[in-house]
Amino acid sequence: MTHNELLRKIYDEALNLSSEAVYSYGKLEDNTKRQVEYIVSISESRKGLLSVLTTVLAHKVLFPEQDIRKQRADIENGYSGRVIDKDHVTPFLKDVSFPAMAEAGWLTRSFEQPHPYTLDYPGKITPKKAKECFLLLIDDVQNNGVNP
Q1: Domain ranges of the chain
Q2: How many CB atoms are located within 10 Å of the residue 64 CB?
Q3: 133 FRET partner, CA 20 to 30 A, in 30, 39, 51, 64?
């Protein structure tokens, strides 16, 4: 299954659920819900953030053993998030009329740095709350068993 096919499957399933059911589907904790809600609330102005986060979370679903913080092929045991985004995620986002970059979220300087997306990631993701939510969500999925 490709990333695009996975996203399409999840999207189609979500269309048949109420908003309460969407949150309970993954048994999200309140702080995780708030982080997701914040990112969604700024997604029109932070399309790269939405695209990159969608890419790493979809990748975790397809490859649960992958450390999704290692989003670059030039990082040891990493993967190419930019290629996945360009080939699968951004086309999906555009197809369903979600906020999307022209090509890929990784073309934003904030996300293209050669560092893993750990809590101390040096990229200048703005606003500060967006960076915090983005990194905390990735950390929770990678280290605390939160369902991507």
Answers
A1: 3-143
A2: 9
A3: 64
